[in-house]
Amino acid sequence: MTLPRPSATPSGTRAASSGGIPGGEIRGLTGLRAVAAGWVVLFHFHFTPLPGVAQVVDALGPLVTSGALGVDLFFVLSGFVIAHTYLDKLGPSLRAAATARFLWARACRLWPVYLLVLHAFGAWLVLRAVFDSDGVIAYQAVQPVLDVGQYLQQLLLVQLWDDPWFDGASWVGSTWSISAEWLAYLLFPVAALVLYRMRSLPVVVLALCSLALMAPMTWAYLATGSPYFEWSWLVRILGGFGAGALAHLVVRRLSWTPAQRRAASVVAAVLPLVLAAGLLLGELAGPGRGGAVMLLFPLLVAALAGADRGPAMLLSTPALVHGGRLSYALYLVHIPLFEVYWLALERFPVLAPNTALAHVVGIQVLFAAVGVSALVYRMVEEPSRRGLRRLSPAVERLGVRVAIALGILRARPVTLPDVAASTDGALATAAARFAAKRRAHARLSGRLEGPRHAASPLRPATLAAALATAQRRRAAHRRELDLWADYERAEYIRGNYLAAGN
Prior knowledge:
Layout (H helix, E strand, L loop, with lengths): L26 H19 L5 H10 L1 H4 L3 H22 L5 H36 L16 H9 L19 H23 L4 H22 L7 H22 L4 H28 L11 H10 L4 H5 L2 H30 L8 H34 L2 H14 L20 H20 L15 H12 L7 H17 L6
Helix pairs in contact: 1-4, 1-13, 4-7, 4-9, 4-11, 5-7, 5-13, 5-14, 5-15, 7-9, 8-9, 9-11, 10-11, 13-14, 16-18
């Protein structure tokens, strides 16, 4: 069968060969990550005590002051992308090797830059704790605790898990969401079992379930104008991540005809205007009430995944896609840079808030955050991720071995024929045992011994040649159990396929 050649689409690197969403990276969603990161950065920068910043905030209002919603948009995006990439691999069954491969891939993505920023900013906090006598070491409402126990929690990204409030839980203030997302990753292999079995539900049901997961935080904004309540961080990550994963199930169920893609493009173009209007009008009902627009985040992500024009094309431009790839580094480095700048505003009269120099330096700090994130991405994040991913086979085997040690899996006992030990060592002894078992099988089946790899109409030459090559290959530096597994596989192929022409 000849499959149609995949074609490029604005929303993804390739179009799916038989309808559906694009395979591989969905570039429009990568570009959306840049927008979400920029929104969070501007939200944090608006706390800078400069008259110029205050004037901009007065003009834009909740378009800036509601930037914390960018974190919730990140959670929805992560749920969608993780389901898009891993659901078919993890959903059918819970397997130790596949789970280890997934978690290792996520660790390779999260930890390198996080560890760099954690230790660099941790040293800054220690210096402030030593030389500042006022007890304020970070610009957080609750001061972080510097001790060995907290360091270990920060190191393992579990600092948030036993705290109902995220204030002061992380040394680098914004990394509370990284700790929350790591928890979502650990839960996803189990959640994938449920999501995979929900994939055939009606699209309307899946869409309503996605919106329902956003409902608790939406109600919090409508009722109080604030997303902060006890264990709200847990509601935000589980709701947003789950809503994104369910939005993926909706998108994959649609056939994505040209008409549907045009409709998705219209929705993707209209929704940003609706979100902006909702933020502005919500302030009329009460401070923070406009945050309820987060209910529409799964719809925005789903629309951009299927759109092929309009905002999807803009978000798929090289500049925004690259910005999306820098978004994780930007999210981590901007708070340390801001904290250094904020301290300088306090300590140096030349940077007094009412001076032009303070405003110029503030703008430079914003640009520096982007530049530093690009440098960190290029020099640390990508090289470390690629290097660590090369260890994936060892990590997969480790997961299986741990499962066997815990009694979750059992190694199947192998019965080998008794033969004399070879003077060439264990590998030669294993080879001799395998040869003895092959001869025993041949005698029992009444087959003639000798070459059995000739091609026939029912035994293609390529498969026969491949088996012959595999049997001739020297099994150097391999364990006997591995050799036995290869032999059993070859016997299965021989008995079920190559012997079909006899």
